[in-house]
Predict the structure.
Amino acid sequence: MIRQTLCSVIFLFILFFSNSILADEAFITAQNGQSLDIIDLASMTKRLSVPIAGKPAGVALSKDGRRVFVTSPEGHFITIVESKAGGIEKKIPINGGPLGVVVSPSGERLYVTDFYDDMLVEIDLNTQKQRYLPIGSKPAGLALTPDGQTLLVAARDDNQIIFVDPQRFRKIDQLVVGRHPYGVTIDAAGQRAYVANVESDTVSVINLASRQVIAQLKVESHPYGIALASGRIFVSNQHSESLSVFDAKDLTPVATVKVGDYPEGICASIDGAIVYVANWFSNELWAIDAVTLKVRAKTATSDGPRAFGLFVAPAL
């Protein structure tokens, strides 16, 4: 009996310790609350709330998860936050309204869409030098291929995806998608890109080798962001309070999942088992099982969570 009890205690200790090591964290920009919430996803509790002015919206994380990059469109700057302690490392001024943001695989460069001035901005994180590239009308979301060789930018009011060579920092191609493209996601293999078209209620699926649209997926009202998990495509629909779910292989519809009020930012867990969605109007972060599509948990956020970008990283 003593041996059995001891084994049970050891097992529970190992389970708890393993979960704490492997736990993810979410970094949620709250636009109305003007903060960055750092949420422990194992317990779905807010660990820290970092004040950030300027209506923070976009978010990206360095490859090692140690730095968080937050855009503030109304403040005209980017804030770099140390992810563990929540300290503000520095602010980088931007001429216009920074919105979408991604980090290069090397961690040396930041790419930012300037929604107000119709520019793509490259920031050298070592020197703080900036380069500006006219990119199209109202650029919003953007995504880098896994090899870092191609950058896709959604030019919202042009109804186009712009292809950029980040090394030479120049446009190399453009492609008409749906009306008002916003969120952009690329799969881990670098073979397909997915674009949420807000006004046409579709998702454009792009073959990255041919740079052609191979499918238009019909979703619910005002799709905003896209996450890929467990072989499925998850699309947040702002006006329908839902996620549209598709099979990523054959692009067939799987289900529609009801979530909170005005879902926006959406991101998969590191292991792809869970999809997290930020509900802007109901001030909540929901965890959805990527296989069963059941709600695993919910937690409150600061006011107006947008979380526009890849906002999940392993806890340090």
In short: The radius of gyration is 19 Å. The longest strand covers residues 24-30.
